[in-house]
Design brief:
Helix content: 10-25%
Cofactor: Zn(2+)
CATH class of the largest domain: Alpha Beta
Number of domains: 2
Structural class: alpha/beta
Protein name: alcohol dehydrogenase (NADP(+))
Strand content: 15-25%
Number of helices: 10
Radius of gyration: 20 Å
Number of strands: 18
Bound molecules: NADP nicotinamide-adenine-dinucleotide phosphate, zinc ion
Subunit structure: Homodimer.
CATH architecture of the largest domain: Alpha-Beta Complex
Family: Belongs to the zinc-containing alcohol dehydrogenase family.
Catalytic activity: a primary alcohol + NADP(+) = an aldehyde + NADPH + H(+)
Shape: globular
Largest sheet: 7 strands, mixed
CATH superfamily of the largest domain: Medium-chain alcohol dehydrogenases, catalytic domain
């Protein structure tokens, strides 16, 4: 069956695309398999990872690359072998992951950790086992394997659901999996897209107190409105690490730059505290004195997005607690300007591209 619609979107053709030089072009989607779903995209968030990838910041990108992995839209084609309860016309989404091996012998896939499968396929700049490339959601349509396609609960608007599918889950998962809840004092470093979700979900999970840690005080009132109880502006108080030493059980760091005061962040941990890095700088993290870990028996770790079942759990919590992300909707046709603004740190706190051509309303 040939599709009645065209796969076209904003393609990065070289690293300059991250400076807002993407071009609207047609491309060849993944070869159809009966386990796939085609999504008519209405909304797509802009994630920091889109910029790292468009500019080949982590590794050489396989251009052309269509960014966007916070995708929501309508299922327009559902394969005959799709086992999930997804029907044509359903409101669905896909996050940063569009594939894993799903083999019973895979330790990760067999235990609900598809996000850690060694054969994970990213929603863009990835390669499927059938040789096709993956293309993201700055586009009219997106084809994704149904295992990674998530139904969106009725009470969550599409524009709000979209950024939860990467930004939201990347903040939620390390909080949930590292004990965030009553009795815990949590810190979130970086008040950006992921960071603002970190504050919202730490609150929704019932943390005793939430400390937002940012470079300057410009985002202080926003962070407090989002649910933070305390705020640290690291560029403005030379003694911040001393003033707030041993105050946090769990820190989730969303910082996207390698020039971070890591050793000072570790000073904020209580004994047996944990520091989880989710921000993915393009260069190595700073060296730090190992006694900042040894002395307090503290730990440093990482976390990658979240498995489909965790995304569903997060959406359920979002609906139940009425979690509201702070988003700014931008027309898909102005994606290049939105990418430039994201790179300049202007998003408050997530840009969501709205596909007016697909009847989505701004
Ligand atoms: N682990 C995963 O699975 C995963 C998933 C999604 C994204 N990520 C990564 O997480 C990082 C954050 O993504 P995001 O979408 O939240 O981006 P974002 O909205 O740009 O937020 C990043 C935040 O980092 C802080 N920051 C500190 N130093 C910075 C610098 N020199 N330049 C820019 N920002 C700096 C800023 O917070 P303040 O202004 O408050 O200081 C900024 O708001 C990216 O590296 C992204 O690739 C990882
Ligand atoms: Zn992302
Ligand atoms: Zn696997």
């Amino acid at each position: 069956m040939t599709s009645q619609y065209k796969f076209q979107g904003w393609l990065g053709l070289d690293p300059s695309s991250a400076q807002g030089k993407m071009q609207w072009k047609e491309y060849e989607p993944k070869t159809w398999e009966e386990t796939d779903v085609d999504i008519k995209v209405t909304h797509c968030g802009i994630c920091g990872s889109d910029l790292h990838t468009l500019r080949s910041g982590w590794a050489p990108t396989i251009y052309p690359c269509c960014g966007g992995h916070e995708i929501v839209g309508t299922a327009v084609r559902v394969g005959s072998k799709v086992q999930k309860n997804i029907k044509v016309g359903d409101r669905v989404g896909v996050g940063a992951q569009s594939g894993s091996c799903l083999k019973p012998e895979c330790e990760e896939c067999a235990s609900g950790m598809e996000n850690h499968c060694p054969r994970m396929v990213g929603t863009y700049n990835g390669k499927y086992p059938n040789g096709s490339k993956s293309y993201g959601g700055y586009a009219d349509y997106c084809r994704a394997p149904s295992h990674f396609v998530i139904k969106i609960p009725d009470s969550i608007p599409s524009a709000e659901a979209a950024p939860m599918l990467c930004g939201g889950i990347t903040a939620y998962s390390p909080l949930k999996n590292n004990g965030c809840g009553p009795g815990k004092k949590v810190g979130i470093v970086g008040v950006g897209g992921l960071g603002h979700f970190g504050i919202l979900y730490a609150k929704a999970l019932g943390a005793d107190s939430i400390t937002a840690i940012s470079r300057t005080s410009t985002k202080k009132s926003d962070a407090m409105s989002l649910g933070a109880d305390k705020y640290i502006a690291t560029d403005e108080d030379p003694n911040w690490a001393k003033h707030h030493a041993r105050s946090l059980d769990l820190i989730v760091s969303t910082v996207s730059s390698p020039s971070m005061p890591l050793e000072k962040y570790l000073q904020l941990l209580r004994t047996h505290g944990q520091f989880i890095q989710v921000g993915a700088p393009e260069d190595r993290l700073p060296a730090f004195n190992v006694f900042s870990l040894i002395q307090k028996g503290s730990r440093i770790g990482g976390s990658a997005i979240g498995a489909p079942h965790e995304i569903e759990e997060m959406l359920e919590l979002t609906a139940r607690k009425g979690v509201k992300p702070w988003i700014q909707e931008r027309p898909l046709k102005e994606a290049n300007q939105a990418v430039r603004d994201m790179d300049a740190g202007k998003a408050r706190y997530r840009y969501v591209l709205v596909n007016e051509g697909n009847d989505a309303k701004l």
